[in-house]
Amino acid sequence: MTAQRDAGPASGDLHDDGGRAVRPDRSGLAVATDGVRLGFDVYGSGEPTLVLMPSAPIIHSRQWKGQVPYLSRRYRVVTYDGRGNGRSDRPTDPAAYHDDRFLGDLVTVMDATDTERAVLVGLCVDGVWRAIRLAVEQPERVLGIVAFAVGVPRIASPQPHYVAAFQVWDEELPTTEGWAKLNRHHWERDYADYARFFFEEITSEPHSTKAIEDAVGWALDGSVPAMLAESEAEFPFDLEAIEAICRSVKCPMLLVHGSDDTCQLPARAHRLAELTGAPLVLLEGADHMIPGRHPVKANLLIRDFVESLGGQG
Amino acid sequence: MGRVRTPDRADERATDAASPSTREQTRARYPETAGYVERDGVTVAWEAYGDRGLPIVFVPTWSIVTSRIWKLQIPYFARRHRVLTFDARGNGRSARPTSVEAYDEEEMALDLLAVMDAAAIDRAILVSLSLGAHRSLIATHRAPDRVAGLVFIGPSLPMGRPVPGRDIDFAADLGVDEGWARYNQHSWRRDYAGFLTFFFENCFTESHSTKPIEDALGWGLETDAETLILTDQARGIDHATALAITAGIDRPTLVIQGDEDAITGPSRGLALSRAIPGAELVLLAGGGHIPNARHPVRVNLLIERFARSVASATT
Q1: Does A213 contact B at CB distance below 8 Å?
Q2: CB-defined contacts A:B, below 8 A
Q3: How far apart are CA B16 and CA A313, in angstroms?
Q4: pLDDT band at B6 (very low <50, low <70, confident <90, very high)
Q5: Strand B253-258 vs strand B280-284: parallel, antiparallel, or unpaired?
Q6: Could you tell me how far CA B170 lies from the centroid of its own chain?
Q7: Distance (Å) from the C-alpha of residue A119 to the closest C-alpha of chain B?
Q8: pLDDT score for A260
């Protein structure tokens, strides 16, 4: 119970992204094993339960605002703010952002919401990789996985702009243009500028102004020290270990990736499909933020996947 | 009546002009029946959807756009009503007559009734947008038995106060291509696409409107400056006629008006709702001139609630 905090759970003063189409039936704070408090919400009462996983600490649970109203009319839906954003605590120790902590948070929230097993829905590394880990480490708790913008580290090349940026992460750069904004010093000076740039880059389809505005707002609900701490967290798996974990997934899985994903190259989705045998839906012209930018498509894919599980729920 | 183009010619021309952005997009729903009516050699293209419920005619607005301005109404209402749309003469698959008289609002209203005949719709709710209010009012005045109710969205009628700055001389060559000075025939000839962009950006003043602006620009480019100049010079309802017609309307009426309408200003919708006995006014907070395209869920639910009350009152 010694987590460092630069802020407690925010008390209802999060960015107003336009009001909610549906209110949670139950909300609360779950306490992780290291004392970090996690804000969660439960919507609806259908079967099975879907856990919509957070992409934290960069944004929080409102990232699923386009999914919750539709899905919660059919299923029970659990969302939570990942550590470092939303109503959750924002520890500033890199150890608090170890991969195992994020996995533990998922278990903590499932326990706190009496969710014995669930379909896990995630986006990028924060959602997809941790869902895979739980499916392998506690298979009895995972009915299936819907993986948007497949972010599994190392299984295929990362976007070159990330590689370049992290090589000079701690350096003072002569420019703040483009991906030079992905830099410790620029974050400390003008994180809002980075957030705007980042979400414009990864939501590059036309007519994305609302999706971008929302995501920037959720990013600014977060904490730069938390983001910096997370960027320094250790990632404990090498390629061999990651591939072995992916091959061990036994539950049904659906991969959904945009052909124009600026954050995760489609090669990662193709590779994960090879490793798991899971079907891959490649959305032509789509970028990274598929659930936010293409909510109807995403919702129908989730629904069809859940229905395909049949009596397994 | 001047020379008219046949529908085939109009199709050909629309295709010629089509860049990728102006080629028709896929539709959520396609019409079950479609056809053309011809009056005085002018052909008008109509489409009908659905087969049940009280019919609704989505009346065309100014020929600056096509009937696709109703694209977010058609799928929803076609599941509940018979839905009829048509392209006003001057755009879409309808003809582009070359005389100003052909665009008289009387002609537009007669097209409306002729299209209802062709689609075998005896009686319908008329839903109009902006300039379409003229056609709806004239048709109601001429054939009240064919109108079950009236919905006006951002009506553009000579009632209430116009938007400040719009008193621009249309005919004189002002040599200026910015702001409302773009509402001028010489400016249209110089920079038609620039006018369209200006106009539609003012139709959609709400944030996050890039898509409806892009759509409307594409529909605007299906016609041209010369055709649009004729439509602007054509005769519509004047103030006295508007007052006379509206005072005699005894049909259920709903006026939907954006309170930030930068094209007609909210005052015209308010004036119309006061002029028609018993009319209901819904003022949309933050709404612009074309809320049916920008706030389709809200507008569809308002229209459907109205349609249900009309249907229950008439059965």
Answers
A1: yes
A2: 14
A3: 55
A4: very low
A5: parallel
A6: 21
A7: 30
A8: 97
- Residues B315, B306: Cα–Cα separation, whole Å: 15
Q: Please report the residues numbered 216 through 235 in chain B whose beta carbons come closer than 8 angstroms to any beta carbon of chain A.
A: none
Q: Tell if the CB–CB gap between B210 and A207 is shorter than 8 Å.
A: yes
Cβ atoms A175, A185 nearer than 8 A? no
Residue of chain A with shortest Cα separation from B213 = A207
- Minimal CA separation from A269 to chain B, in Å: 29
For the stretch A40-65, pLDDT in tens is: 999 999 999 999 999 999 999 999 99
**Over the stretch B138-159, which tens digit does the pLDDT of each residue have?**
999 999 999 999 999 999 999 9
Continuous H helices in chain B: 7-17, 74-78, 105-118, 132-142, 185-190, 192-203, 210-220, 225-233, 239-247, 266-275, 291-294, 296-314
Does the predicted model carry a pTM greater than 0.90?
no
pLDDT (tens digit, 9 = 90+) per residue, B203-237? 999 999 999 999 999 999 999 999 999 999 999 99
The distance of A297 to chain B (nearest Cα, Å) reads: 14
Chain A residues closer than 8 Å to B208 by CB: 207, 209-210, 213
Q: Helices (H), strands (E): how many in chain B?
A: 12, 8
How many whole angstroms separate alpha carbon B65 and alpha carbon B200?
10
* Spatial CA neighbour of B183 closest among B238, B231, B239, B132: B231
Burial class (CB in 10 A: 0-12, 13-18, 19+), B97: buried
Mean local confidence (pLDDT), A278-287: 98
Q: What is the DSSP string of chain A?
A: -----SS----S-S---S--SS--SEEEEEE-TTS-EEEEEEE---SSEEEE---TTTS-GGGGTTTHHHHHTTSEEEEEPPTTSTTS-----GGGGSHHHHHHHHHHHHHHTT-SSEEEEEEHHHHHHHHHHHHHHSGGGEEEEEEES---TTSSPPPHHHHHHHHTTTSPPS--SGGGGSSHHHHHHHHHHHHHHHHHHT--SSS-HHHHHHHHHHHHTS-HHHHHHHHT------HHHHHHHHHT--S-EEEEEETT-SSS-HHHHHHHHHHH---EEEETT--S-HHHHSHHHHHHHHHHHHHHTGGG-
- pLDDT confidence of residue B295: 97
Whether the predicted pLDDT of B44 surpasses 70? yes
Q: What is the pLDDT of residue A313?
A: 45
HSE-CB of B267 using CA atoms within 13 angstroms: 8
| Distance between CA atoms of residues B77 and B94, nearest Å | 23
